[in-house]
Design a protein that fits this description.
By secondary structure, this protein is α+β, with helices and mostly antiparallel strands. The chain has 8 helices and 3 strands; from the N terminus they run E-E-E-H-H-H-H-H-H-H-H. The chain has one domain. A 3-stranded antiparallel β-sheet has the order 2-1-3. Helix 2 runs parallel beside helix 4, helix 4 packs parallel to helix 8 and helix 5 packs across helix 8. The radius of gyration is 18 Å and the shape is globular.
Length: 198
């Protein structure tokens, strides 16, 4: 088994605790000074591995999203969606999670959310005439309405500030960054055609 370095940020009754753990077997135990409230696994997003939180922990995380950096929010959404596709996390938990992203400002987080909604749109296409998909459609309309109000469909001069691109994480050429922004907007437009009709 590979040795995997894991960075954690844990909120306990005594405050924030930062931990570095080297995972050398299938599981390990971590000593904490008091009971855990919530935890960020892969703090700072430097690890190349997936994180799957338990349903109970996801509920605690959802009430503390303001404690997550943009790269940590990206990993949270991306990893949770991957766990849904693998059949390890209920879809309902993922949908409850993304409900909290109406005010999200990071384009990379939006790209994951929009991609997952496009996938769900495709797999539920034959059921669109039924009431079974109405909650999903309502959620998508709410999310996209917020994105449209914040970003619009066209590039703006102030995009760098509004989308919180955080160059410390991207390290990409400015021209490449603009193309990535355009791609995210294109996907938002595509999904909106389906879910935001009058």
């Amino acid at each position: 088994m590979f040795h995997v370095p894991i960075m954690l940020r844990v909120r306990t009754a005594e405050g924030i605790v930062n931990k570095k753990v080297l995972l050398t077997q299938e599981s390990t135990a971590i000593d904490l000074p008091s009971a855990m409230d919530w935890c960020v696994v892969n703090e700072g997003g430097h690890g190349f591995y997936r994180v799957r939180y338990s349903v109970e922990m996801l509920k605690n995380i959802r009430t503390n999203m303001n404690q997550f950096a943009s790269i940590e929010r990206f990993n949270l959404v991306n990893d949770t969606w991957a766990a849904v596709l693998a059949g390890l996390t209920p879809l309902s938990e993922y949908l409850e999670l993304i409900k909290l992203f109406t005010d999200e400002r990071d384009k990379n987080v939006w790209t994951v959310i929009v991609g997952s909604l496009q996938y769900l749109d495709r797999v539920t296409a034959k059921d669109k005439a039924t009431k079974a998909v109405e909650p999903l459609q309502a959620l998508t309309r709410n999310l996209l309405s917020a994105a449209h109000k914040r970003f619009g469909w066209e590039s703006q001069a102030q995009d760098d500030e509004l989308t919180n691109t955080a160059s410390r994480h991207d390290h990409c050429h400015p021209g490449h960054h603009r193309r990535r922004q355009g791609s995210a907007r294109k996907r938002l437009r595509e999904v909106s055609k389906t879910f935001m009709r009058d």
